[in-house]
Amino acid sequence: MSIHEFPSSHARRVKPFWTLDPSIVYLNHGSFGACPRVVLEAQSRLRERMESEPVRFFIREFESLQDQAAAALAQLIGANPNDIASVPNATAGVNTVLRSLHFAPGDEVITTNHAYNACRNALDFAAVSAGARVIVAQVPFPIASPDEVVEAVLSQTSPRTRLVLVDHITSQTGLIFPVERLVAELDRRGIDTLVDGAHAPGMVPLNLDKLGAAYYTGNCHKWMCAPKGAAFLHVRPDRQGLIRPLSISHGANSPRKDRSRFQLEFGWTGTSDPTPFLVLPESIQFLSSLLPGGKKELAEHNRMMALAGRHMLCEALECEPPAPESMIGSLAAIPLPDAKEQTPSSPLLLDVLQDHLFFKNNIEVPVIPFPAPPRRLLRISAQIYNDADDYRALTQALRAYLTQTLSSSILSDR
Ligand SMILES: Cc1ncc(COP(=O)(O)O)c(C=O)c1O
Q: From the CB of 116, is ligand 1 less than 6 Å away?
């Protein structure tokens, strides 16, 4: 099968596994994931257990449930469970590291122009309040090769560089960045890397022990289909002494000797609903059950669908694919003609086209200003509940909209 053909569809069979609104063409799994029924049911059962006797649950049972979830997650991400902290989301994971490192005046921290806005804000906050400087490496988009990422970042390093914050899979542009090469090259220069892997778990294979990044945070509520609020922070053992949770709690002065201080501090950060993390074994089991080849086949299937969807849209828009296939997982971004309408002034506001596709065509797909308005990208997601018809519907709706609002010369006649 050509990489531009849609893989055979499983959508009809698997769609009922999710609670997604059947009237919506859902092409935005990337933003918030989508949690399947079976996992939500497991979470409800766990919540009932928690509320049936909260003291028994939190004092007597919670730690071993947390250990089981961490062990299942550790296997998926190639890590030692003792090096994993449960955090509510990748934003918290990034903030935890940045707020722990205490930059000094004159320090330099590097990120890229593809960084996620919330995490870029966290970096600016931590750096500016310490008198450190944020350097933004310019990674081109369209991009010809992962080498361009490595060159852009490494060219900004200096003896003052304290940390590099880099996305594993970029949010706006949906690119897999070559984090293995970056971490190794930066390590050689004595520079630590904080990898923002918000989209990576469940989308690309992970082996965090082998990667060797000082810090890696990832969401489980996106491509692992866990409930919202399940994420992790992985800290290399030699850096665990530096990293403190955002909430200092009982672990700080616990006399226990059976766990590391890192585990004690992150294992309890105050009362909250821990069930999203605790049902990770069910999420992983669900992902494994969808196709005969398990999680690996699922990721490959989704990637083929993202590439085929991208091809269809690029043909309709008469544009070249903006990135090599090797940099694509289950997300793909395609440049759109510049916005003629008012463009959003904040990432939380939606582009007029995104609203149009939703309200007129029942299609949920993000339109993202990048690198800055009026330039913008359309970012498709591919999850096994999608099929070729979803991307066809999007292509037709887009063509109709652009014909109506912009010069039709950029569109093909098909
Ligand atoms: C690269 C990246 N980092 C961080 C985040 C933030 O994730 P969360 O809102 O779960 O913290 C996202 C969300 O899409 C993202 O794409």
A: yes
